[in-house]
Design goal:
single chain, three-stranded parallel beta sheet, three-stranded antiparallel beta sheet, 12 strands, 21% helix
Length: 255
């Protein structure tokens, strides 16, 4: 809004007086706060388009601070990082970033540290990890992971250079699909499906009904009979594998 970003991009390829070469910026990053998946997707596509228009098509793009909500917004809500409204929203944000071509997304914050008294005390509920209540002269000790942490852990399968196979824009319904070829020694694929029903005005109650899913994997060379491990983060599950499915006719089905 202040025009500084445009000036930086305009000078990106100018000759630097110190090192005498162009490309003054190695990568571009920005923050976003309290935005749902669709808004994250729109913003990331806008930033990517601006970089491309400036000639920086290969410049990596990162979102280096975001969360379902800020700690102050969490303070006004009954939700925690274990609430479907929060962890599904975080999943939609991550999926939206991948679908928009972002090279990396960094959730803030890691731990639920104490809120300052000016914010009413308590803890910063946007932390991914819960801490033991502090006491004098003791260090912070992690005592558990939130469901939002397990959502982020799922997305790590498609990070660190894993080749994306599919990234479908789910902004119309807040139902996102991200697929990648895993980089680990086991090979195979990781497919992430997010339904952030809290942001869908047509659904007044998140999780009020189940959904039948049919995922076509035939284009990825997956043979019939191959095993598909189904893991979920929901009000009832925290990232554990709860079904072992088989590919039939190039499709995996579950409900």
């Amino acid at each position: 809004r202040g025009g500084w970003a445009q000036k930086v991009l305009a000078a990106h390829y100018s000759k630097h007086p110190l090192h005498g070469r162009g490309e003054l910026v190695d990568s571009w990053s920005y923050h976003t706060y309290n935005s749902g998946g669709a808004a994250v997707h729109r913003a990331a596509r806008t930033v990517r388009a601006s970089l491309n228009a400036s000639g920086a098509e290969t410049m990596p793009l990162y979102i280096t601070e975001f969360n379902a909500w800020s700690h102050r917004e969490f303070k006004r809500r009954a939700d925690t990082m274990d609430s479907p409204a929060a962890f599904a929203r975080l999943g939609a944000q991550l999926a939206a970033a991948f679908a928009a071509g972002v090279d990396g997304a960094f959730v803030f914050r890691l731990t639920q540290t104490a809120l300052p008294q000016r914010d009413g005390g308590g803890v910063k509920k946007n932390g991914l990890l819960r801490l033991r209540p502090p006491s004098p002269r003791t260090a912070d000790v992690v005592v558990g992971a939130t469901r939002a942490f397990h959502v982020l852990k799922f997305f790590s399968a498609c990070a660190d250079g894993a080749p994306l196979l599919d990234a479908r824009d789910g902004s119309a319904l807040n139902r996102w699909v991200i697929a990648c070829r895993r980089q680990d020694s086991a090979g195979g694929f990781a497919v992430l499906l997010v339904h952030a029903c809290e942001d869908d005005p047509r659904q007044r109650r998140c999780g009020a009904r189940s959904h039948e899913v049919a995922l076509d994997v035939s284009a990825w060379g997956v043979r019939d009979g191959a095993a598909a491990l189904l893991a979920e983060v929901s009000a009832l599950a925290a990232g554990n594998v709860d079904q072992v499915l088989a590919v039939r006719g190039g499709v995996v089905r579950w409900a």
